[in-house]
């Protein structure tokens, strides 16, 4: 597919929960299958034919800029824009108006997902002459009702309402942090008020302004599985899903040395890791440059150069 649009990834947040957990990387740079989350996102954009990607950076931006550089090695051209203030998604998207002159796909930088009928996201946008298309997934689990925005539809299929973090289940459709917009979104953002709940400018409020103005807003069920990675347990869950999806037992990084007798099961081991003594490792992630000198086993943990982080995962989520 070849789509003449731009890609945007929002990767400027501090991510306090991840930071306080002991994980040494920004959320968008956390490794899944030994690749940063936003590398997976760029690869998804490339499947739509996108060649220009804007990455919004901020806190510890060098982690991102030093890794991706100009994007040439991934087959895209990357431009970096630094976020000056943290005032919500709508606010930061509004700051991009000088750099965007055509439709664009927007990703939140902590979203890891597996698509289905991925190209239909753009097909709907173009064939329906839509102003926006929201990637959604059906989910009736009340456990997650307040973690995402809900999407309500007219019988015609048009979106009639979006509700940020609803208290009650109002629709089986939840937003997934992936959007396609035309440039009309910028006018809506200029008219978006600051919310009382979080004192931010919410993109859902901007979308609702477009809906109320009569613009055609659609949803697309193009996400088969996804997680907003906000904790070590989320990261381990995504890596286990990655192994299952790719039908491999383990992924071992380049330059890694594992001693004879070590048993590695259902785990992802990063680059330049040294495992000096036999151990049994199961359902674990080992970050780059870790040196394991003891023979102690580990299970359901993330190992960084700072130590081990235990994870409590709900494995039923692997099959959601």
Describe this structure in words.
With 320 residues, the protein is α/β, with parallel strands linked by helices. The protein has 2 domains: 6-228, Alpha-Beta Complex (Spore Coat Polysaccharide Biosynthesis Protein SpsA, Chain A), CATH 3.90.550.10; 232-319, no CATH class. It has helices spanning 16-21, 37-47, 62-68, 89-94, 120-127, 184-190, 203-212, 232-245; strands spanning 6-10, 31-32, 35-36, 52-57, 77-82, 104-108, 111-115, 132-138, 149-153, 159-164, 173-181, 217-220, 223-228, 250-252, 257-258, 263-265, 267-269, 274-275, 280-286, 291-292, 298-304, 307-310. Helix 6 (184-190) packs across helix 7 (203-212). The chain starts with 5 loop residues before the first strand and ends in a 10-residue tail after the last strand. The mean pLDDT is 93.
Task: Give me some keywords for this one.
8 helices; 2 domains; 320 residues; globular; alpha/beta; NTP_transferase_dom
Could you outline the blueprint of secondary structure elements for this entry?
Elements: E1 6-10, H1 16-21, E2 31-32, E3 35-36, H2 37-47, E4 52-57, H3 62-68, E5 77-82, H4 89-94, E6 104-108, E7 111-115, H5 120-127, E8 132-138, E9 149-153, E10 159-164, E11 173-181, H6 184-190, H7 203-212, E12 217-220, E13 223-228, H8 232-245, E14 250-252, E15 257-258, E16 263-265, E17 267-269, E18 274-275, E19 280-286, E20 291-292, E21 298-304, E22 307-310
Parallel strand pairs: 1-4, 1-6, 4-5, 8-12, 14-17, 15-18, 16-19, 17-19, 18-20, 19-21
Antiparallel strand pairs: 2-3, 6-11, 7-13, 8-11, 9-10, 21-22
